[in-house]
Amino acid sequence: PKILRFIAVTAERMEDMFKKLVAFGTAATMMMAMGVTTFAAEGDSTTLVTKLYKNDKFDASAPDSNLSMGDAAVEDTTYVEQADGTYKVTINLKESFKAYGMTGYLTNVQIDANGDGQYDATEYKLTYNESGKAVVGVTFNSPTVPTEATKYDASFKTNVSIMPASEGDFIIFPTVVTE
């Protein structure tokens, strides 16, 4: 009888210890999950996939078709949440790119940052390379994070030999770029 009582008490203690361990694990998991949202707060940068399409030619069912020649200049897009709850969005462009065996760059970039159908230069800021010829960045504020294929109408010139100015669309995809 003493041995059976000992086994019963030991089993109860093990069950109590197991419950405490599970409670501790659950609490630790919840604290880590809350920490992730805290770390992803204001000031953290997120990088998204971005492509440049021919004007009004984006097709969600075939995202790699109808790309502009200037798509080779697009690196990615980053956004950072600001203190006022808006997002600073930057479309990062390469200083030069290859197209049909020729080297080129984007210039005369204009973007409809707020979707009103106007290319208003007060709504965005262009960054140029050292020579001042190639546009290497377009920065603007957005009230929302790109959560689906977010489209920004654009006008630009692909400076590759004698190519004319082009109209196109920057499409920012919600796919996060991982290194």
Quick gist of this model?
This protein has 179 residues and is an alpha+beta fold.
H/E order of the elements?
Answer: HEEEEEEEEE
Which consecutive residue ranges, at least 5 long each, have pLDDT under 50? 34-40
Mean pLDDT: 80
Reading side by side through the largest sheet, how are the strands ordered?
4-5-8-9-1-2-3-7-6
Separation of the first and last Cα atoms: 64 Å
- What form results from the Cα inertia axes? elongated
Put simply, the count of helices is 1
Described by strand count, sense and barrel closure, the largest sheet is: 9 strands, antiparallel
Describe this protein's structure.
- This protein has 179 residues and is of the alpha+beta class.
- The chain has one helix at residues 2-39; strands at residues 45-54, 74-81, 87-93, 97-99, 102-111, 124-128, 135-142, 150-159, 165-176.
- The longest helix has 38 residues, at 2-39.
Features:
9 strands; elongated; nine-stranded antiparallel β-sheet; alpha+beta; 21% helix; 179 residues; 1 helix
How are the elements arranged and paired?
Elements: H1 2-39, E1 45-54, E2 74-81, E3 87-93, E4 97-99, E5 102-111, E6 124-128, E7 135-142, E8 150-159, E9 165-176
Antiparallel strand pairs: 1-2, 1-9, 2-3, 3-7, 4-5, 5-8, 6-7, 8-9
